[in-house]
Structure formats: C-alpha cells, structure tokens
Write a structure and sequence with these properties.
Blueprint: E1 3-7, E2 28-32, H1 40-47, E3 52-55, H2 64-68, E4 75-78, H3 88-93, E5 97-99, H4 106-120, H5 123-132, E6 148-152, H6 156-167, E7 171-175, H7 181-186, E8 190-191, H8 195-201, E9 204-207, H9 221-226, E10 232-235, H10 244-253, E11 258-261, E12 281-283, H11 292-310
Parallel strand pairs: 1-2, 1-3, 3-4, 4-5, 6-7, 6-9, 7-8, 9-10, 10-11, 11-12
Helix pairs in contact: 4-6
C-alpha cells in the first residue's frame, strides 16, 4: 500500500514540475495543496491521512499541538536548512523525522536589491503614475554612489548584499552581535561602533540576521528613531527582527523615509494591514526565495529526503 504525501502551500502550483517525482511513483501518492490553510483544524482535515508532509518554509507552522493531532505522520520535510516554526523536540518525541533541503543565498540577495533600488528611485510611484496618466517625472531619486549602506548581519546573504553595495560605490558599514572588525573587513565593510551607530549613519539599512530569541525585535523604536528622516529600511530576512508597531509609527510619522519589505508577522498579509497601503512602503509577498533555481533545490531536495527516509537512511535531518 502506498504512503500518502501532501505538499502544502504550493501557491504557484509548481511543486510537481520543479523536480522529478517519478522515483517515488510506485511507493508514494503525492497531492498538492495550493491554498494556504489558515488554522490547525484545516491542516488536520487536509493531511491527517498522510505519513509524509512537505512544507514551504514557515508558511504553515507545525507546533506540538498540531503534531499531536497527526498520529500517522512519520516524515516532515521543510524547504531550506532550518525552520523555526517546527517544534523539533515535539516531532522527535512522536517519532517524526524532520528533514530540510538546500537553499541558495542568491535569490534573497537579488530581491534585497530590487527593493532597495525601487525605494531609491521611487519605482512604485513613477510606474503607477505612468500607468494612470499621472505626472511625468514627479520624484527625484536618491543616489547610491557615495551613500552609506548599513548591513545588519554579515552572513551568506549579508556579505553578498555588501559586495553589491560596494559595486555601486557605497560605503558599507556592518553590525551584528558577534561581528568582528576582521570579518567585516574581509567583506569590504567597516564595523560599526555599535548598533545605534549603524542606524544613525546609514542611508539604507538592510537586515540579514537569523531570527532567534536573541535577535527578535533587534530593530525597535530606539533604532528607528536613530535613523535619518531620509533613510530607508529593507527587510527580506524575517519580520520578527523588527518591532512591527514601531515600524508602522516610523513610517506614518516620518521618522524614516520608507521601507522595503518582503516578510511579515502574519502571512499572507491581512487585507487591512497598514503595510498594504502606506505610501512610503514598497512591499512584496515574500518572494525572496521564490525563483526557478531555488524551487528546484527545494522540491528536488524533498524528493531526495523522501527517498532516503524510505530507504531507512534519512538525510539532512534538522537538529
């Protein structure tokens, strides 16, 4: 009898075409759910008969309560090498193997610059005016050359963002809790004296920290108030790094010039969320990792994880 596998939150309907699932055809029945399941009851109803579930990043959290309601579940595969929305300890206690996949740092790096450039050159405003027959040239762009780029977190993605900033002729300053002057210099950045110094001196601040108890809320009212009224914040990392209420106030009251956002506390973003309508926000629906090559890594890795699990030798288990 075949095992049953559900692939959740395949918004674009590309899971089965982004990888070759044929090696599983004689052992696993795979079904795809394109619509987001908003609560535990909906998730249980959709996958309670499944031994295998494949999830996309943190779109659908698997906490202890949900895991307890899925007694048939034996393998949970998440895209990417980590997933803070899975209770790993609870899964392990229930005998559920949790595996991840590879993920490329290039797509979020590229999207970071799409947002940053869009803010600097007022792309949203000018493109909409052109479509609506509005004014021809109503804004003046912000130059990048000679300006300061603040990078919070200089890991795989942050280091790439810094390199592109240098290519634009920007002065790059970096900060994270454990960043050293030597590591900053390796990536062509200078180490900020402290976090406040980075926010106060940068024309653009881009966030690239892993979300943890330590980093949650690392950008709050003090940091936003330290920024210049002409400065922009870009977040393609995790919404929890920023105090959301303070950010909305900063945008409404003009503490900062604007924000480029790709991540939110609740996804999909509620229809009445102010971030959808604030004029100084350039917002995208969490597209940082959504590219053809990255999806090939995600879903190809999911097939590999399932094959290895069936062979009794799981790979890429999350610690």
């Amino acid at each position: 009898m075949k095992l049953r596998c559900a692939v959740l939150d395949d918004y674009q309907g590309v899971a089965l075409t982004s990888a070759d699932w044929s090696p599983l055809a004689d052992r696993v029945d795979v079904r795809v759910l394109r619509e987001h399941l908003a609560d535990r009851d909906a998730v249980v109803a959709a996958v309670e008969d499944c031994e295998i579930v494949v999830i996309m990043r943190e779109r659908t959290p698997f906490d202890a309560e949900l895991l307890a309601r899925l007694p048939r579940l034996r393998l949970l595969v998440t895209s990417g090498p980590r997933n803070a929305s899975i209770d790993i300890a609870a899964a392990r206690a229930r005998g559920v193997v949790v595996c991840g996949t590879a993920s490329s740092p290039e797509p979020p790096t590229e999207l970071t610059w799409a947002l940053l450039l869009g803010l600097a050159r007022h792309v949203r405003t000018e493109a909409q005016a052109l479509r609506d027959g509005g004014p021809w040239q109503s804004t003046v762009g912000t130059d990048l050359a000679g300006r300061t780029l603040g990078v919070v977190g200089l890991g795989k993605i942050g280091a790439r963002v810094a390199a592109i900033g240098r290519a634009f002729g920007m002065d790059v300053v970096a900060w994270s809790p454990n960043l050293t002057e030597e590591r900053a210099a390796e990536h062509g950045a200078r180490l900020a004296e402290d976090k406040t110094d980075l926010f106060a001196s940068a024309d653009f601040v881009s966030l690239h920290l892993v979300l943890s108890d330590r980093s949650r809320g690392v950008v709050g009212e003090p940091e936003l108030r330290a920024m210049r009224p002409s400065a922009y914040l870009v977040n393609t990392s995790r919404a929890g790094l920023v105090d959301g209420e303070a950010l909305v106030r900063a945008l409404r009251e003009g503490w900062i010039a604007g924000a480029g956002l790709d991540v939110y506390d609740t996804e999909p973003l509620p229809a009445d969320d102010p971030l959808r309508t604030l004029p100084n926000v350039l917002a995208l629906p969490h597209l940082g990792y959504v590219t053809e090559a990255n999806y090939a890594l995600y879903f190809g890795g999911a097939v590999e994880d399932i094959e290895a699990f069936l062979a009794g030798t799981p790979v890429r288990e999350l610690p």
